[in-house]
Amino acid sequence: MINTPKLWAGLATLLLAACAQTPIQGTGDLGLVVERASGSLQLLNTSTRSALGRVQGLGDLSHASLVYSRDGAYAYVFGRDGALSKLHLPSQRVVARVQQSGNSIGGAISQDGRWVVAQNYQPGGIKVFDAQDLSLVADIPAEYAPGKLSRVVGLADLPGQRFIFSLFDADEIWLADLSQPRAPRISKFSHVGHQPYDALVTPDGRHYIAGLFGEDGLAMIDLWAAEPKVQRILPGYGRGQQPLPVFKMPHLRGWAVAGRLAYLPAIGRHEVLVVDTQSWAEVARIPVAGQPVFVMAQPDGRQVWVNFAVPDYDQVQVIDTQSQRVVHAFKPGKAVLHMEFTPRGEAVWISARDSDQISVIDTRSFATLATLPAQAPSGIFFTSRAQRIGL
């Protein structure tokens, strides 16, 4: 005869034991910071403003970047040495890794999270991987002339399982439709301007804008147009002035858009350009402390934060988007390389490579809320990026 009370007690014990072994952990307030010198990533918690652990052995992480799976549980890390690693955040373990090129410069993930795409310098092109096991799905060389491969920059994901990227050496922009990833369809835009070096997609996925290193101006494509074509915007923003030496290439991403205005770094100039995203005409330029590298709008668009190339790379300035003026400046450490806002923008995390620290700054009071030690930190990436286009 079955002893029912004992049976239920046994099942309850097993259930409790199972729950104790597999705790559920959310990832919405987690993030990773790249520690480039040591080839490691440090796991961060933005709620407790603390570091949770370190994952090592990831190779050359200079200029490394990463993207997240839809659930924020996995990060795909693009190393400069061409390695692509898949990291499980809750367990802090590398669960897959492939050597996919000789020199990589970042990547993106598809709208549905199924495909991870790496952009490469050597050999030039993009490669498409299955997000589950990192098996190769498609190889798209950036061959713009017989035997000539271009370095690829400015890769961004688009709605509709598409990716867009620029060919630095070919003055071209390519659009890859991966709705059938093993048979990708490529659309090519030629003569977009000299040396597109980086690019952004607006948060609605409509406009792709590539900065041009070889000339004053930018190339823009309206991806909602019936027949998309390249349009030059901000031609001659240097206004005939002598080009200045560029100490570090500025970065472009969708975070530069605040309301209907875009805030863009002017190459080699101590200015931030303000552009109306309806007309794509310059409406203002804001003098800043040095050559801007990252120009990033807070999630609410109220302020824009700017860091700089050498010799001004210990400074950060804050622009008020209503008055279009710098309202705050400070020095959070030596060699400020990156900034990342918490999902709702109450704080910004700033990496200072040569100070070996990360600072957490209150975006209203500008008070320092916390400092965390890190080994030569560079890029900071929060899991909230998983829910945004173009990051």
UniProtKB/TrEMBL annotation:
Alphabetical list of InterPro entries matching this protein: Cyt_cd1_C_sf, Haem_d1_sf, Host-pathogen_enzymatic-act
Signal peptide (UniProt feature, chain positions): 1-20
Keywords: Signal
Pfam families associated with the record: Cytochrom_D1
CDD domains the record matches: 8prop_hemeD1_NirF (cd20778)
SUPFAM superfamilies assigned to the protein according to its UniProt record, in alphabetical order: C-terminal (heme d1) domain of cytochrome cd1-nitrite reductase
Gene3D superfamilies: C-terminal (heme d1) domain of cytochrome cd1-nitrite reductase
PANTHER family associated with the record: DIHYDRO-HEME D1 DEHYDROGENASE, PROTEIN NIRF
Protein name, UniProt field: Cytochrome D1 domain-containing protein
